[in-house]
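So, could you explain this one?
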Amino acid sequence: MDALLRDRAVLYVTGKGGVGKTTVAAALGLAAARTGRRTIVCEVSEQDRMSRAFARQGVRPEQEVELAKDLWAITIDPQRALEEWLGKQLGGGPAGRILGHSHAFQYFVAAAPGAKELITIAKVWELAQPQRWDKHNRRYDLVVVDAPASGHGIGMLTTPRTFGEIARVGPIRRQATKVSEMLADPARTGYVAVALPEEMPVNETIDLERRLRDAVGLGLDAIVMNAMWPERFSSSDVTKLRAATRDGHSVGDLGAVRAALAAHERVKAQRAHVRRLEAATDAPITPLPFVFESELELTHYEHLAAELA
């Protein structure tokens, strides 16, 4: 993971819905920022969970907000990104905003399958460029993408190639080609899958690598196995616990013993799922501990970032 954080320009983080992608993306961003790399974490939904996690209020969707030293976040707004791109093509000024809001252009964007996805991934590309669409904005050393869940996330990666094939010439073709080249360049872009140690997330992660190769010609660079329970009991402890269930303890004691054994069995099951994933992929797997909190605070993200560094 250290090489990805140090050397890549973009980290694309995806996985099955509900596995903790946003948490892992935030922790990766924080880990990179701690090394001195100017880092931004991009959300492509409208939930703006990053800013809330770092106690930033009143943040506009398209705003690049500083969360900590060398760490920023943005929720990409396709409409705003489109206006920026059009402004760049038209030489600046209000023309991009005017055209972007025109009914004809709005209809085209709404009707063209994948247009918003193309604009979104093009904005990711733009954040990592020395020359930004807005000349007053600085580039980032690392862009961490909190991508959509696996299916939509892979689909987003294919849109530049699709639009490049449709638009044979012109600015859309040129932009799509540049983005496609970045996504297929292993020196610039790394792909990280987030999984849980459960049957369905592991199955989807195995399938994700195949679909990723079909989409961009690259495999996964890393897998983060999230929410791993700690092993609290040795084999001798487990033997004693099992014996205790037969020794006629009080109901309260027996309940605690059974809870301990259930936790042990869960750890065993989790490790079996990890072994199955290890056998099915060449990508290194980094475990992250289960955080026993309903809401994560900055200290939790810092702990997870240290685990990933």
In short: Residues 251-280 form the longest helix (30 residues). The two ends are 7 Å apart (CA to CA).
